[in-house]
Every structure is written in structure tokens, then in C-alpha cells.
């Protein structure tokens, strides 16, 4: 099972690199596409989101692909995009969403202000947090 998770992470990382290169070459009216891998146990057993920092452009639509590298049944619920690390102030009209192993959860939004925001898993004692940086 661990080998399969490793292969999944490599494949998703390659997709993320490809998507990242596509964003750099996109025209102003296109959607910014990003991939995130969520895990409660990848690495040294510490919960994580990979990559832990993503950057997008303000006022350009974003399509965020999410998948979990965990065992079936380990659902990340809810995940929110907010102005604070605790997920108490959701932004950009994004409601809490689930991230499940083997299933891609797509979240679409348009960031309307610049700054640093947070992608936070709420149900864990210590929130799992990634940064969303919105630039001009």
C-alpha cells in the first residue's frame, strides 16, 4: 500500500508541475489550474498538504484539484479556504469541501483580493494548513 501511495504522489506531482507550467503560459481569460495532495500520514507521519504554498493571480478564475494520498475511508472533512489559519473566515465564496482517497474533488473560485490566505483542514486537533498566495 505504501508503494502505491508513493506512486500516486509522484504522478500527482508531475501533474502539478505540468499544470504549473501551463499557468505560466496562460492567457488572461483562462482558468488557473492547480493540484493539491492532502495526507494525514505522508512523510514522517505528520499531516500535510503538497505543495504547501500555491500562488495564483487576483481576479482570474481558479480550478483547484484535490486528492488524498491516504487509505480508503480517511476523509478530510471539511477543508476550507480562509483568511485565517483556523478556517474561521472563509473567502472567495468557497464552502467547506471533502477530500477523499481515490477521488478528485474540484473546487472553483475567483480570488478577488491579493494577500495570503489559508487552505485549512478543520477536523484535526492541529489544523493541516497550506498557504494560498494571491498576487496581482
Task: Report on this structure.
The protein is globular. It has a five-stranded mixed beta sheet with strand order 3-9-8-5-6, with no helix packed on it. A four-stranded mixed beta sheet has the order 2-1-4-7, with helices on one face. The chain is built from one helix and nine strands; from the N terminus they run αβββββββββ. It has one domain: Cupredoxins -  blue copper proteins (Immunoglobulin-like). Strand 8 and strand 9 form a beta hairpin. The mean pLDDT is about 80. Helices cover about 15% and strands about 40% of the residues.
Provide the helix percentage: 10-25%
Q: Count of DSSP E strands? A: 9
What's the level 1 CATH class?
Answer: Mainly Beta
Give the neighbour order of strands across the main sheet: 3-9-8-5-6
CATH architecture: Sandwich
In percent, how much strand structure appears in the residues?
35-45%
CATH superfamily: Cupredoxins -  blue copper proteins
How many strands, what sense, and barrel or not for the largest sheet?
A: 5 strands, mixed
Number of self-contained structural domains = 1
Roughly how many Å apart are the termini?
42 Å
Any low-confidence stretches, pLDDT <50, length ≥5?
none
TL;DR?
By secondary structure, the chain is α+β, with helices and mostly antiparallel strands.
Amino acid at each position: 500500500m505504501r508503494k502505491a501511495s508513493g506512486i500516486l504522489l509522484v504522478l500527482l506531482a508531475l501533474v502539478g508541475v505540468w499544470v504549473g507550467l501551463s499557468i505560466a503560459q496562460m492567457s488572461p481569460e483562462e482558468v488557473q489550474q492547480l493540484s493539491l495532495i492532502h495526507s494525514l500520514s505522508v512523510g514522517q507521519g505528520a499531516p500535510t498538504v503538497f505543495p504547501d504554498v500555491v500562488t495564483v493571480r487576483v481576479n482570474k478564475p481558479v480550478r483547484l484539484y484535490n486528492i488524498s494520498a491516504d487509505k480508503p475511508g480517511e476523509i478530510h472533512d471539511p477543508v476550507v479556504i480562509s483568511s485565517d489559519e483556523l478556517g474561521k473566515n472563509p473567502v472567495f465564496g468557497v464552502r467547506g469541501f471533502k477530500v477523499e482517497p481515490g477521488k478528485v474533488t474540484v473546487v472553483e473560485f475567483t480570488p478577488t483580493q491579493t494577500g495570503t490566505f489559508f487552505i485549512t483542514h478543520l477536523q484535526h486537533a492541529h489544523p493541516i494548513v497550506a498557504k494560498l498566495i494571491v498576487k496581482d
